[in-house]
Amino acid sequence: MKGLSSAARGVIESFSSLEVLSDYYLIGGTSLALQINHRLSEDLDFCQWIPRYHVSYAIPQVQILEELKKRFHQVDENRIDFHQVNYVISDPPVRITFYQTALSKPIFKPIPLIGNISMADLSVLGGSKMYVITQRDALRDYYDFEQNHSQSVV
Fold this sequence. Notes:
By secondary structure, the chain is of the alpha/beta class. The protein has a single domain (6-103, 111-120), classed as Roll (Nuclear Transport Factor 2, Chain: A), CATH 3.10.450. It is 36% helix and 25% strand. It contains five helices and seven strands, in the order H-E-H-E-H-E-E-E-E-E-H-H. A seven-stranded mixed sheet has the order 3-4-5-2-1-7-6.
């Protein structure tokens, strides 16, 4: 899996069989790095499109935490709200984010990666990077967007 740090690769290989992952897509710079190999990514971001923001669609954080703790010695959890939870595997340190959005789900063909993990395609990643750029100011997002754009799919 070119585009992933060895730590992130080890984590993704260890927990790719989690059933809950089949409801999410690997997105962001990590998915882009795996597809075009433009940089090394060290975190894992998973997105699920939901009909609307409501507690009934909440991320199954307890289930995910229990599964991660079965596989890794130290796991820290930071629940931002019902629709975003960050987990950090301590050794080696890898951040895993589960995020939900009520934005319209784009039409795309998921790209299988490993186990229950599928990735969003480049057209989705281009749109999501444009959205992320409006939400935060991180240089890597501009770099990712430019690299995605150079692939002529945005």
